[in-house]
Here is the input.
Amino acid sequence: MAILSNSERASGQPEEETENESAEDLILREIGPTSPRPDQIRVMQDVVGLKLKEIAYATGVSRESVRLWKRADNGDRPERYEDLRAVTERLLRGGSLDPILVGAWFRSRNRGLGYRRPLEAIRAGAFEKVSHAAESFLALSAAASEHVRSGEPTEVLERHDVVEAVTGSVP
Here is the structure.
């Protein structure tokens, strides 16, 4: 699935691609660990749909700090920021998810995280648990996508399987 930014969704036009790099490749490069922080934050906000206040909350800093990060990369990478960036990157590299679902996943309560939202768990320092929950989400999302492509009746995928994939909990 192609990764589209919010502006691309609104305009219906993909962002300009470099000579041999697709928009998806560009986004994955920009969220990578060695990319400048303004590029990483742009992906978190424009592609995944995280709000500035959500990035600030998850990383345990002020909104003003995130605004400063959007302007320049001073090389300082707080641990919680790197945790959020790494999970975002992993979910985007999963390939089969619409990026807007990544943002929804970060905001949804998750049974595997003690019914906390992944943003809350990152703030609390539970990176390993959030990473595990993200891997579970990717695995179930891939299975659901494969199921749909197989042409089997969609009723086979129970509603609670889909809800669990997004939220980590069964209704």
Summary: The chain has a mean pLDDT of 82. The CA atoms of residues 47 and 171 lie 29 Å apart. The longest helix spans residues 127-150.
